[in-house]
Request: fold
Amino acid sequence: MTFLRNLGVAACVSGWVLAGPAYAQDASAWPEHEIVFIVPYAAGGPTDILARLVGQKLQEQFGQSVIIENKPGGNGSIGAVAAARAEADGYTIYLGGISTMSVAPALSAELPYDPNADFAPVSLLSRQSVLLMASPDFPAKTLADYIAAAKADPGGVSYATSGNGTSGHMAAELFQLAAGVKLNHIPYKGSSPALNDLMGSQVNSMFGTMLAAVPNVRSGAIKAIAVSGETRSAALPDVPTFAEQGLSDYEPGSWNGIYVPDGTPPDVISKLNAAIAVALESKDLAEKLAVDGSVPAHSTPEALADLMRAEQAKWKVVVENSGATIQ
Reply:
C-alpha cells in the first residue's frame, strides 16, 4: 500500500493563463442577456442539483436568466465538448469536476477535449464525500462485512456508479486496491438510475457522492456502509468513516467547479468569480448543500487550476496501478 501513501501529489503549476486573445467586450456591462450553464450529466443527479442551486443564485445577482443545459453522454465528454466549442464571451459556463477534468485524461489518451487547454477555470464550487452504500437486502452492515463478502466471492459483489470515469468509479478502484478485493463494476448513465437499481436490489452496492443519496439513506431505502473524509459527515452522523473502520489510507473524494471556454475575457472571469463567492456565502444555499453532505468551496481560478492538475496526477497513479478502463 506504499503507493497509496504517495498519492498526495503536488502539482507544479506556475499559474493559469486566464484568457487568450484580447477582447473589446465591456465587462462592466456583462451579462446583457441569458447565460447558458452546461451540465455534462442528466437532470436529477448530484451535479445537476448543484448547478441548479448555484444557477439560481447567479440569476438573482445578474438579473439575467441562467439556463441549465443538461448534455449527458460519453462519460461527460459530450457536455465538455459543447462547452469547449462555445463562444468565449462569458455567456456559456460549464460545470466541470473530478470526473471530466481530472480522471478522464488518465483513462483515455484520445479525449475529444483538453481539460488543460480548452477551458479557463473560474472557481471551485463544492467538495463532496464519497459514500459506500448497499442495497436493502445485501447482508453487509459494516465495512468489515462488505470486505468479507467481497473476499468470499471475488468478482461476485457488484457495485453501481453514475458512469465510467466518475468519482464513484475511481473511488471503487482505489478501494479494491486498498482492501485487496475484486468487485464487479456496473456503470450507469447517471446517479438516478444507479440509485433506483440499488434500491431495487438489482445491484449489491454503490460508490457515489452524497448529494443525491442522502435522502434515500435517511428513508431506509438503502444502507450506508462508510463515508470518506477525516470526520463523519454532518449529513449522516451515524455513518462511520472508512478510516474508523480500518482503511486509514483510503482517501477518495469529489469536487466540482465552474469553467468557461479558453479565451474568455479576464474581467468577465473575475466578475463571475465574485458572483460565485456571493452565491456560495448564501446561507440558504449552504444549508441546502450541507443537509445532503456537500460543502461549498469558493476558490481563485489559480487554485482550481492547481487542484485539477494535482488530481490528474493522483488519479493517473490509481489508473495505472488498478488497470481501470472505460468499459
